[in-house]
């Protein structure tokens, strides 16, 4: 079977950790990741969703998001006491996007960027240093792990706030990690040693992975006459994506849909845009992701291309 994604597997010797939850690998990887994306500071968490929640909690704002998006995003918006305003964008998929501009009572504001689908060298350097960018380490993401997330910024005070909030509202003792002082009401959102150890291994492979993905992307673009740029997903449009996925699976090729419309769902509470979003509604019926990962062989690429050309119009 030709898989949609490649997930690396590792044997992690937990006896090497000084602490199963808070080994030095956690803080070391935070700094390693910040340096890779071009930021000064970083805070890890058990998932990107937790960091999104902290970024939006209590805002009571209208948060504008594309309708074709993973349902985790509207879930977080609703659960953090905000409201959804969907818009008709189908081109953001596979890249990062600005999730929201958070305004505070003191007149200050920051932009919150969601980069769950993109990790590239120095990408934060193109962002205002006072803003924040959130990354996901979900297994299929560019830097995968057994879930986890990271938020980066050049604002040290901002990142220190996230470190307190993800660690049950406590601050660490400089000399003894077991001694912590509770300074506010926080959450048990911290990452663990295993998550960060796996993510660290995958980050170190990312440059070579991206180089190979660019080669695969060029082969697909040439074969299909497209100009896709994402290093996370390779999407095409077909007549009927459900039928296409079924027939590709019969040929031993796994495909997926990224993503269905969220504005048509009734489970995400109040949202402002209740009208038609024609691009998104058409996209959820036609968009399909084909196998796109660094382990694809020339034979597998040829097989995918042949079957896409044969079945795309079915």
Structure, described:
- This protein is an alpha+beta fold and 314 residues long.
- It folds into 2 domains: 14-203, 3-Layer(aba) Sandwich (Aspartate Aminotransferase, domain 2); 206-311, Aspartate Aminotransferase, domain 1 (Alpha-Beta Complex), CATH 3.90.1150.10.
- It has helices at residues 24-37, 48-56, 72-79, 156-166, 193-203, 206-224, 241-250, 278-286, 298-311, and strands spanning 41-45, 62-66, 83-87, 97-103, 109-114, 132-136, 149-153, 170-172, 180-182, 234-237, 287-290.
- Strand 4 (97-103) and strand 5 (109-114) form a beta hairpin.
- Helix 1 (24-37) packs parallel to helix 5 (193-203) and helix 2 runs parallel beside helix 3.
- The radius of gyration is 21 Å and the shape is globular.
- The model has no long low-confidence stretch (mean pLDDT 93).
Name its key features:
single chain; 314 residues; alpha+beta; Aspartate Aminotransferase, domain 2; Aspartate Aminotransferase, domain 1; five-stranded mixed sheet; two-stranded parallel sheet; 33% helix; 17% strand; globular
